[in-house]
Amino acid sequence: MKTELRDDVVEMDLICVVCPIGCSIKLRAKDGKVEIVGNRCPKGYEYAMDEYRDPKRILTTNVRVLNGDHELLSVKTDSPIPKRLIWEMMRILKNIRIEAPKEVGEIILENVLNTGANIVSTRRIMRRKS
Amino acid sequence: MKKEKVDVLVVGGGAGGIAGAISASRYGVKTLLIEREDRVGGVLNQCIHNGFGVLVYGEELTGPEFLFKLLEESKGDFEVRSGETVLRILKDEKVVITVSKRGITCYEVGALVVATGARERPFSTLMIPGPRVSGIYTAGVVQKMVNIYNRLPGKKAMVLGSGDIGLIMARRLKLEGVDVLGVIEIKDEVGGSLRNFVQCLRDFEIPLLTKHTISKVHGNGRIKGVTVVEVDENFKPIDGSGKFFEIDTLVVSVGLIPQNQILEGLVEFDPINGGPVVDDLQRTNIEWIFSAGNSIAIHDLVDFVYEEGVVAGRNAARLALGERLPRRKLKLVRGKNIGVMVPNYLTGDENRVKMYMRVRKTMEGGELRVQGGRVRKYNFKVRPGQMLDVVLDVGRLSFPTGERIESCEVEFHEDRASR
After folding, report:
1. 8-state DSSP, B151
2. Nearest CB to B147: which of A74, A76, A104?
3. How many CB pairs under 8 A join A and B?
4. Of A34, A53, A72, at which residue does a domain stop?
5. Are residues A45 and A67 in the same domain?
6. What is the pLDDT of residues B260-278, one digit of tens each?
7. Dihedral through CA B203, CA B207, CA B213, CA B217, nearest 10?
8. Which of A116, B191, B309, B321 can bridge B292 by disulfide, Cβ–Cβ 3.0-4.6 Å?
9. What pLDDT band is residue A1 in, cutting at 50, 70 and 90?
């Protein structure tokens, strides 16, 4: 959760998800200076910094399959993508159609939205027997 | 009726069963896995989100990828028959009778591994007033509709229950364009993991309504809405707190129940786990019947289910090969703050035994003790929603000599000073 107080001050209340401890981290950035409190380890510091700079997530979803033994192919981004791009990514993935068959790990879309991440298949889909 | 001999029969083709079959077949015994549905994998097929396999494979996989790795590992060392289900187990004869499209089969087995997973607790068990309308689904059913069958349940939804499955389905529906009004949780904190809370609810600005529940369902034919009320510390609705939410879909995620009917009346059950009592060999009180995974107690991680499956399969194979397995020597008894706990007995067969348990209430920290000795210290919050796994150094425990079974207490000692 991010609160922008003034143009130059950002405050965030975060829950670290690096490990199950789940530290409550407070981040305050002012004039480019970042203050982080509440983390118990360096990984938590990194997590908070990433959440401040540009939070990234792995996106998992499904795409439509043509001539497959199932209607959907489950896919994921093979590396974390900026959170702010998730909805745009979903729009792209909703509008594509993939021809069966597909193997696990096959690239469906390369370097999507210039993130450096690929959309890869996470399931094996066979061609429908007709 | 066909008759067939197998060394190890595994019932259930989810993560636990497949792990069990892999592990048994490594001993060179004839292993057969039967699965009721038409493909193996169980719930892994529909869990397209990631977070599986960190302990087993050292990387974060989605459910289908975890299944793929598991099947790669097996390399066809055992036979799989899908569309086949158990009718009866004959205890004294060591016989399992099954049915499938191929007919009825009578298996004479050396050992049996039951890994039949869990079912979702249905909405009707909550006794919430209102008409029995359509549009109320359990989370797993919605997950199958959305991720396998490409069908959305509705346009405007609420989720009841903030366990991991509820959180994941809230995000899933939101990503698919459903308006998710919120997740309702009767307790004062999120039920699932913090990571899922952050990445499923916070990331998508889905509200979590803690200390709330549904007091009434509205609708005629199809659900039109729910009344959501605040509850007090005894979970009783607070008068005047009711608020109407218009929805066409209610997703219910109020817990899982171990599924093990095929063992009912046959083996001893643990009422708190909701499944068979097992020892550290994953063996029930019937020496040739083993059980693993969610059919004995509800686990949080597929990795834990896998680990239990491996133990069950290994010991089933040892028995089928004619080895005399050790008997139960030490009973593990729940002490303070311990709820779900696996296993229930130790045999002394292994020096290091993996234990899985849940605390009964949220605590800021403390230590887990067995026979009064510290097994692990927790410097952070422990919650019932998060299963604890520890390796017990059995060599440090005192075992009884002779024939009698003694007991030792497992307790979570709350550390009040921590924080």
Report:
1. -
2. A74
3. 64
4. A53
5. no
6. 999 999 999 999 999 999 9
7. -100
8. B309
9. low
